[in-house]
Amino acid sequence: MAFLAASGAASCAFCAPDWFLSPPKDNVHLFGAGEGATRKEAERHALSEIAERLYVSVSSEFSTSASQSIAGDKSTFESSSRKRITTKSLPIDFVAYSTIQSEEDAGKIYVLVAVDRFAQAEKVGVDVKRAMGRVSELDSAFELEKSPLRKAKSLAASIKTLEEIRPKALLKDALEGSGAPLYASVSEMASQRQKRLYETISTISASIKGDAESQRFRDILSTRLSDEGFRLTPEPCLDISCVKFLVTAKSRKTEEDGAVKVKTEYNIEVTDPDGAALTGSYFSSTGASFAGEEEAAGKALEKAREQVYASSLAEILGL
User: What is the rounded end-to-end Cα distance, in angstroms, of the chain?
Assistant: First the structure.
């Protein structure tokens, strides 16, 4: 008899309320159950459970791409981005929740939390609206600028802002349960600006110069830009659509286990015709060889070539 009583006590130590095991569902709230040593800890676990379900519902790979063929040229500008929505990229700060059930048993506290999904959607919407205001400012800057590269900078910043809010747009749609109209709208805006970005880049011409050590890298850069239909001009570069590439290189040699390692860093500064800095980019590569410094340097240069050809024009321009 004592054994049965002990067994019953032990089993109850692992019992939980029915509402904890099977939280309710409705169209207005998101419910989450949690347990902890304190009420605060239990509520935190309940909110984490709700957040995790939201992440699952909106977590998906999404990508944008845009291509713009240049008239009279076989080249095609392309750009794409692919991300996965994660708990890190989409922090959720619940603002409208209440604890509707609470029970303590065997030293544990169980709670049932309800989040007002529409109040939460409204909060997320405020963040999206603020970001869209920033996009409008950048669009205005694009219209006012005369320099193609400065226009491209505004577009690139606008695209980055839209990319950052796409997960929140998807979250707002998920909270409202209305399909994905906001997400689709933000994605379309990003796609349109991506296309306009490469149309703008195609109107830029450039001159390329640099220090002696960067000569072979500049040859690679010139070929890469020419392959994409980029117009290269000799000095002087005076037209407003023209930009200047100033390339500098710095190499460092080390030896390890009988092999020579050469690390070369290339810094690209892009300026307007008057020399005012506009954008910039950076490439770094390392080569190693047992045959000596020259072969190691050649391998480093080949890796730099691969990086340049793997980069989009926007990335090379530092946009």
Answer: 78
**Do residues 221 and 247 lie in contact, with contact meaning Cβ atoms separated by under 8 Å?**
yes
Strand runs labelled E in the chain: 29-36, 61-69, 76-84, 97-105, 108-116, 205-210, 231-232, 242-256, 259-271, 277-289
At residue 168, the 3 state secondary structure works out as helix
Q: How far apart are CA 6 and CA 9, in angstroms?
A: 5
How many C-beta atoms lie closer than 10 Å to residue 69's C-beta?
13
For 61-108, what is each residue's pLDDT tens digit?
444 433 333 333 333 333 343 444 454 555 677 877 899 999 998 889
Cα 33 to Cα 287: distance, rounded to the nearest angstrom: 55
Domains of the chain (ranges, CATH numbers): 2-118 (no CATH), 124-201 (no CATH), 205-316 (3.30.160.150)
The CA distance from 307 to 17, in Å, is 58
Q: Dump pLDDT digits (tens) for 131-158.
A: 999 999 999 999 999 899 999 999 999 9
3-class secondary-structure state, position 155 = helix
Burial of 46 (C-beta count, 10 Å sphere; 0-12/13-18/19+): buried
Measured from the Cβ of residue 192, the count of other Cβ atoms closer than 10 Å reads 15
The pLDDT of residue 56 is above 60: yes
Residue of 42 and 72 predicted with greater confidence: 42
- Smallest CA-to-CA distance from 198 within 226, 228, 220 is with 228
pTM: 0.73
125 vs 229: CA distance, rounded Å: 41
Is-contact 254 261, C-beta < 8 A?
yes
